[in-house]
Amino acid sequence: MKISLVYSTFNIYFMLFVALLAAIVSPSKSNKTDPESQCRNVSKAFDNEKLVEYDAAKKCIESFPFDPKFADDTINAVSHFMSSYYVFLDQAKEEPPKGFTYQPVDLIKELNSLRKKTFKSDYDFITALRNTIFKLKDGHTRFNDICYQNFIYDQNLTLYSVVTTDKEKKQKQIFKDKLDSSNNNCEVTEIEGKPALQTIIDFANNNISYSKDLGVRFNMALAPSINTFSQLFTLREDLPETSTITYNLKCPKKSYKLTRKWSVAFSGAAFENFCFESRNISAKITSEDKATGSTSSDKFKTLVSRSKNNKKSNIKHAKFVTEGFYLVNDDKVGVAVITDENTDSIFDLVDGLKQLNKRGAEKLILDMSNNIGGDPTVSTFISLLLFPSNRSKQPNFFPTSININNFTIPIIKKNFDTHSNDSDDYNPFSFLSFPSGKPFKNVNEFIGPRKNLTSGLHLNPLTRDELHLLKSTSHFRWTGDEIIILTNGFCISACALATLYLSEFYKIKTIAVGGLLDTPMSFSTFPGGFDTTENVIAEEAGDNITEVPRENALLLTIREAYDFNKNNITTGVLEYLFKPADFRLYYNESNARDPSFLWVDAANILNKKS
């Protein structure tokens, strides 16, 4: 496998894994450091949209003193919400299923262990807290600080990993450089004196938390065929350990060492608002600034929309039909590039499929790489759009449940008795009963047996727009044998639910791209269920015991989705079921730059399969 440097454009990354909204401060200044003086030049540079040096950024963020009371209050709040509402708390303690790579974690125990520690700075405490939560390897769950996580650390290069096409079939790391194009296409043999491949694997294993599958995390560390997506090794949200990284490059005409500094920017709102004035919660920080909810796609929307624009120019071996839709193999195979499951995207999806159908595409590739998820009802909608036999009624889909506790029971009863039309997780009228697909008859049916705190089984009803589109759209020509799913594993949340359902219940074959050589890899990741923030939970559940201080944001998975069999019996929690792809492709020096090469390969697999 080869790692290559790719151009990285700052603006594209401003939404990448950035904390929703939070602000960090300490109530008193350290005798040794004054955050205002340490950060003043940094602040001025950011106000003028300039970069700063690593050392200046480090001194600034480490100048906020550690506050034991703030730390204790934060741990109390995080522990309360995670123990009361996080649906995977017990399963996280268990050994990972075969195919997944992570360490079991007793989260509450580890959070309590943080109380015994004294940290050098506020940043050190926040980092320890984030890393503790990241051990869950749950992409829906994280702790975000708007000051620290709005820093962006960029190497101005990209690495990608390719598998050679010779008999040796080695995995190599290739380089593409924004600052010095003479480094483009050089092979990276070592990083910081260690073999490049192992360095990336270690980073993916230890520093990336957005999947339980190491192969998917490995892909996220590098650049996929959309060159401007993940790249978490060279584009980071947390302060790197060192001010530079040294790469050993093997180029066509020479081999040498390249040492590259981090350039540091700040995204989002004014630096002062979130890192200075928030020490006293300034008037500029309003209640609207705090995160009020989230689907997994929130932090990726800007990124993906811009990636779409970049992608079109890279397509050399497919015929453009309309935005996101192409034809390959003499126009016999259609390609639908689906980058999210947002309800406002379903009209374009239907239109694109209609055009492929009209052009006579005999088979269909669903490219769901780098899909940011979205609304769970769209997952159901996609299956009904392609396989309309159940359009006349709400079909069964992966059911979900929530934790039930003493706060939520009165709220659930009140919502039911008042026929509330609020759309929240504790309103029985927001969901349908599984497996009947009908409204809940009473409160107890929604609440369920409360075994291990979990509720009854719930389904998300389709929206009016979805029902109207299904009713007005004619059947497409493609059968399950004539469709194949292609992903690089980063098909998250609602995307994961959609692909898992199509694979399991319609027997659509799947292809995973990239990952580790000769190691099975998932075609989707963190199907979870649904995530939200602690302040939304407090509002919906009436839980006002505590709150996360200083406008920081805790996001957590509050719904877990279940697999089920033909008898409508649940058979496991999707988040902890390893589902490897049926087929495997690897990035090479061609398809790493142009995804149409992958589509041609997928079409060949599809033709052989059928």
TrEMBL record:
Residues making up the signal peptide according to the UniProt record: 1-30
Keywords: Signal
Keyword Signal set for record: yes
Classification via Gene3D superfamilies: 2-enoyl-CoA Hydratase, Chain A, domain 1
Keyword Signal among UniProt keywords: yes
Domain of life: Eukaryota
Alphabetical list of PANTHER family matching this protein: PEPTIDASE S41 FAMILY PROTEIN, RHODANESE DOMAIN-CONTAINING PROTEIN
Protein's recorded name: Tail specific protease domain-containing protein
Source species of the chain: Gigaspora rosea
Classification lineage: Eukaryota, Fungi, Fungi incertae sedis, Mucoromycota, Glomeromycotina
